[in-house]
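hey so i finally got around to running the thing on that chain from the lab meeting. sorry it took forever, my laptop kept dying and i had to restart like 3 times. anyway pasting the input first so we r on the same page abt which one it is
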Amino acid sequence: MVRFRLTGASLGSVGAQWERKDDDREIARRVLNLLADRRLLWKDFTVEVEEHCVGSAIEIRRELGRHLDNPEISGPLAARVRLLQTLFRSFIDELGPYGGDPTHRGWSRVGTDPLSMALGRLRGLVGLQIGALASEFDLEVGEDLALIIPDEAGWFFERFPPGAADLDSGH
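ok and heres what got predicted. didnt touch it at all, straight out
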C-alpha cells in the first residue's frame, strides 16, 4: 500500500500538498524487479562470463544499498535486503582476486569450475529470499527468476516442454 504524508496546506482556495511514501510492499517489488533483470541468477551456467557476473553482483549490491537508504523501509525488510547484500558480497569474495584460476584457490577436483559452484550457491540462497519476499508481500515473480525459487519440497522449479508429463507416465 502506498502511503501519503501531508506536507502542506492552504486556506485560500482550500488545498493540500501530499508526499508519496513507499511502503514495504513497494520496496520489495522494486528489489524483485532489480533481481529479475540480472541474468547471473537464472541464465544457463555455460553462457556466463565470470567478470560480467562479478560486475553484475557489485551493481546489485549497490542498488540494494539504495533501497536500504529509503527511510520508509521497515526493520524486517531491511534485514532481508542486508542479507541479500551479504549473499552477493560472499559470491564476489568466493571468486576472489584470482578469478577462475584454480591454481590459486586449491580447486583440484575435475569438473568443478569455481564460477558454476559460486553461481549455484548464490542462486540457491537468493532463491529462498526471493520466494520469501514474493510470499510475504504477495508479489509476482517472473518466469526466469522463478526458476531459482524452491517449492515446498525444497526442489527448484523447472520448465518442462509441453507433453513432458505424458512421456514420464508412459502415455
